[in-house]
Amino acid sequence: MTEDLINKKDIYFPSYIGTNDNLINLLNRATRILCDWFSKAEKYGPLPIDENFKCLMPDEDCNSTEDLFSDIQLLLNNSFNPVHPGSLAHLDPPPLIFSILGDLIAAGLNNNLLAYELSPSITLLEESLCKWFAKKIGFNDSSGGIAASGGTLSNLNALIAARHNSGLGSDPNSVLLVSEDAHSSFIKCTRIMGLDEANLIRIKTDNNGSIDVQNLIETIDKCLINKKKIFAIVATLGTTVRGAIDPIKEISEICKERNIWLHVDGSIGGIFALTSIPIKGLNSINQANSITINPQKIIGITKTSSLLIVSEMRTLENTFSTGLPYLSSKEDIINRGEIGIQGSRPAEVIKLWLGLRFLGLKGIEDILKSSIKRKDFFIKNISKNKYDVFSGPLHIVSFLPKGIAPKDTDLWTKTKVNELIKNNFMLSRPKFKGKYFLRVVMGNYNTNESHIEQLLRLLDT
Ligand SMILES: Cc1ncc(COP(=O)(O)O)c(C=O)c1O
C-alpha cells in the first residue's frame, strides 16, 4: 500500500479521538479548490470551463487522494458557475457564504430529521424557524411548517394536506384550481396524487399575468354544476416567467366564503414577507392555509431550502402521521418524519438558519431591494421601441422583439442566447403560451449597473 492510501484509510471516517488533522487538511484543500473555481468565473464566465466530464465509476481498489482531488477539479471545471455577474438565466443566484458553511456542518453532523432522537437540536431548529416564518407572515400560535427539498415538494406537501383535510381522499372528482401561469410543478403534483390533467383546472390571467378573479368565480360555479369538488385553489406569489402576483386578498375571500383551502405558491415571492418592501397582496397571505417559501431562489440560501408554512400545524399531522414504530418519540415534540412526505431528510435547515442569521432582516431586505433595483434599471433602459417587456413587481423580466411572429420566437431566442453567452451573459428562453421569450432574472448580487448597461447594448444591436 502506498503512503497515500494508508493515510486515506486512516480517515475513512472522522475519528472520535484526537484532532482529525487529516480531515482538516482535506477540508482546507477542498476549500481552496472551490474558492479558486469561484474566481475563475472572471475569466471563463457562467458556463463550464470544459466540456469533457467523464463520470468515472468506482474501481476495484480505492483511489488515491490525488485521484479524488483531480475528480473534484474535473467536476468543478465542467460545472455552471452561478457567481459570475452575467449569470442571469434562472432562479439560481450565487450561494451565500454562510449557507456553504451550513451545508458542510450538516454533512458532518449527518443527523436525520426523520426523528427527534436522530436530530435533537435540528428538530427544534426546524420547528422554531418554521414558527418564526409563520409569525412573520402573520399566522397565530397554532401555525408551523416543514422543510422539504424544493418548491415542488413543498407544494406537494400542501396539496396532499389540502385534499386529506377536505375529506376527499382519492375521490376522482376532486379538482385543483391554479392560474394558467402557475408553475409546472402542479402538473407533477396532480399526477403523483393519482389525478388526471383534467383535475387540474386553469384559471385565465389578465394582462399583468395575475389570476382573473371573474374567471375564477365562473370556474368555481362551473365546478359545482359539474359536481367537481375543489380541494384547493393556488395563488402564485411570483410567477416563473414574469414574476406576476395573483390577487391574494380577493382569492382568500372567495376561499373563505366557500370553505376552500388556499395555498399560496410563494416559492419566488414569499421571502418578501420578511421585509417592509411593499408588494401588493403580501399582507393578505396570512389568510392562506398554506404557503411555500423557497429562499434558495432569491437570497442565495444554498439548494435546497424550501419551507411549507401552514396556518394549522394539526393539518400536517392529520395528513402524514403514521406512527414510526422503530423510533422513540418525546412528549410534546413531533418527529418531523410524521408531518411531511419525506422520511429521512438532511439538516438543510442549518444553511437556511445560518444564512438568515448572517444576513439579519436588514441584509435580507438589502438583497431583495437590490434585485428589484436591477430589474427596474433594466426595464427603464431597455428599448421600448424594440421590445415588448413583461414583468411584475418582482425581479424577473421576459421580453420579445415587437411584432415578432410566434413561430419566429424559437430561432430568435436561440440566436440571441448564443450571441449573449459569447459575451458571458447567460439568459434563459422559457416557452410560454406558444412563444419563446428571452428572460432575465436579476437575483445576482454580483451584477451591477455597468453589467446591465453592457447587456442592454448587446440587446440593442
Ligand atoms: C413559482 C414556482 N413554484 C415552484 C417552483 C418549483 O421549485 P423547485 O424547482 O425548487 O422544486 C418554481 C421553480 O422555479 C417556481 O418558479
In short:
The protein has helices spanning 3-10, 21-44, 65-77, 97-109, 120-137, 151-165, 185-192, 213-225, 248-258, 313-320, 349-381, 409-422, 449-460; strands at 144-148, 174-179, 200-203, 229-236, 262-266, 290-293, 306-310, 387-391, 396-401, 431-432, 435-436, 438-441.
Explain what this protein looks like in three dimensions.
The protein has three domains: 3-81; 104-356, 3-Layer(aba) Sandwich (Aspartate Aminotransferase, domain 2), CATH 3.40.640.10; 365-460, Aspartate Aminotransferase, domain 1. It is globular, with a radius of gyration of 24 Å. The mean pLDDT is 96. α2 runs parallel beside α3 (65-77). It has helices at 3-10, 21-44, 65-77, 97-109, 120-137, 151-165, 185-192, 213-225, 248-258, 313-320, 349-381, 409-422, 449-460; strands at residues 144-148, 174-179, 200-203, 229-236, 262-266, 290-293, 306-310, 387-391, 396-401, 431-432, 435-436, 438-441. The strands form three sheets. It has a seven-stranded mixed sheet, with helices on both faces. A three-stranded antiparallel sheet has the order 8-9-12. The protein has a two-stranded antiparallel ribbon with strand order 10-11. It is an alpha/beta fold and 461 residues long. The site of pyridoxal-5'-phosphate has 14 residues, from α6.
